[in-house]
Amino acid sequence: MFHAPEEETARTVRTVPKVQLYQGYKESRICIERKGNAMFQLKWVWKNLEGCRKRYVFALCSTAVLSMMALVNSVLTAQIMDTVFTPVKEGQGTTPELWHRLVVLVSILIGFTMFRMCFNYLSVMTYETCSQKLLFKLRRDLYANMQAQDSSFFSKNRTGDLMTRLTGDLDMVRHTTCYVIRMIIDCVVLFLTTSITFLCVDWLFALAMLAVTPIIFILTKVFAKQVHPLYVDLRERLSRMNTAAQENIAGNRVVKAFAREDYEIEQFDKKNEDYRKFAEALNFVNTTLAKQMAGDGEGATALFEVKVIHAKDKEQAKVLSKSVITSNLTKAAIYGHDANWGRILCAMGYSGAVFDPEKVDLYFSSKNGEIKIIEDGVALDYSEEEATKILSAEAVTATADIKMGDASATAWGCDLTYDYVKINADYRS
User: Which of 70, 84, 122, 382 yields a CA-CA distance of 20 to 30 A from 138?
Assistant: First the structure.
C-alpha cells in the first residue's frame, strides 16, 4: 500500500511534487513491510479513515454489544426450560400461569432475536461502508502516486508488484478493517463475558476452562508463524505472475510482430503453473488442519464431511452443507453408523435454501467404499450391511447432488456421541 497525499481533490493531488509523493510511497511501504509493529499499521489505517471515524467507532462498539447480547438468548432459553418445562416434567402439570409465562418468555426471546438481527445488519453495513470508502481513498491516492512517478520508479518496481498493491494488498486492508478487527473484538468480548458467567456459576469449571487458554494461544502463535512465510512466498509468486501477464499483454503487438507467441505463452505458463502448485499445497495444508480441528470434538469418534455438489451458486452450497453438518440428529446417526438419509434431507430442508428434494442424489463414502442411497429423492434398495461398514470408518463423507448448477461446497464436523453428552453434562461432578 502507498501513503496517500493529504490533499483531497484530484486536481490538488496531481499538483503535489514528485518528491513528496515518493516520500509518501516510502512511508506507506514502511507501514506495510515493518515487521512486528501492528500499532504503527493501525495508526496508518486510522489516519486514512478520516471522514468516517465516528461510524467506524460505532461499528466497533456495536460488535462488543452484539457479543454480549449473544448470551442473552442463552439466558432466556434457560429461563424457559427452568420455569416452564422443568415444573411440567416434575409432575406439576400445566396451569394458566405456566402458559402465560411461556408466551411472555417466548415473545421476549423472539423480539430480542429480531432486534439483535437488525442491529447486527446495521453493524455489518457500517463496517462495509467504512471499509469501501477506505478502499476507494487508498486506491485513488495510490493511482495518483504512481502517475506522478518518473521512469526510474517503474524500473525499480515490477508491474506485478504494483498490480498486487492495487488489488490484493488494498483488499487485504479492507478485509482487515471490515472482518478481522470485528472478529478479534467479538472473540475477546465473548471470551470475557463467558468467563465471567462461568465464574459466577461454577468457579472451578471456569478455572479449568481458562487453564486451556494459554495452550490455545501458543498453538495459534506457532501456526501463524508457520503460515506467514507461506503467505509471503505466495504473494511473491503472484506478483511474478502478474508481471508476466501485464508485460506480455502490454507488449502484445511486439510479440506478434516477431512471432514469439509460443515462447511467451510458455514463459507465462511456467510462472502460472508455479503459482498454481504453491496455492494447491497451501490449500492442502489449510484443509488438513481444518479437518483435524473439526474431527477433534469432545468425545468424537469420526470426522464427518458433507459435500453439496451441482448447486445453483456457492452460497446455496455453503448453506446446505453447513445445515447438514450442524444437525444433531444427523451427527447422532453418523455415530450410530446409520445411513439415515431422511435426517440429511430434513437438515437441508430447514436450512432455508431453495432446492428440489425430488432431484437429490445422496451418497455415503469412506475408505471402506461408497454407496448410493438416494436417487432423485427416492431411496434405493441398498445393502444395510454395506452402509454400516462404510459409516464405521473414522472419516465419513456424505455427498448431496442437487442438480441445479456447477457450484459446490464442503463442510467438516464430527459425530455426536454419548461421551460428548457426558462430558458436558457431568462437568460439575
Answer: 122
Q: CA torsion 29→34→40→45, rounded to 10°? A: 40
DSSP letters, 47-78, are HHTTTSHHHHHHHHHHHHHHHHHHHHHHHHHH
Q: Are the C-beta atoms of residues 194 and 212 closer than 8 Å to each other?
A: no
Q: Which of 53-62, 85-94, 338-347, 389-398 has the lowest mean pLDDT?
A: 85-94
CATH of 1-200, one of 1.10.443.10, 1.20.1560.10, 3.20.20.105, 3.40.50.720: 1.20.1560.10
Give the least confident one: 10-19, 60-69, 377-386: 10-19
CB 242 within 8 A of CB 168: no
0.70 cut: is pTM over it? Answer: no
The count of other CB atoms within 10 Å of the CB of residue 200 is 9
**Alpha carbon distance 224, 229 (integer Å):** 9
Distance CA 362, CA 320 (A): 13
Least confident span in 310-324, 375-389, 411-425: 411-425
Q: Which of 363, 358, 352 is nearest to 403 (CA)?
A: 358
* Average pLDDT for the chain: 78
Cα separation values, 244 from 160, 174, 239, Å: 7, 26, 9
User: Where are the domains positioned within the chain?
Assistant: 1-200, 202-295, 303-424
* Equal fold, 1-200 vs 303-424: no
270-313: per-residue pLDDT in tens? Answer: 666 777 777 788 888 888 888 888 888 888 899 999 999 999 99
User: Which residues are CB-neighbours of 212 under 8 A, at least 6 positions away?
Assistant: none
In a 13 Å sphere around the CA of 27, the CA atoms on its Cβ side amount to: 16
What single DSSP character describes residue 6? S
Does domain 303-424 fall under CATH 3.10.20.340? My reply is yes
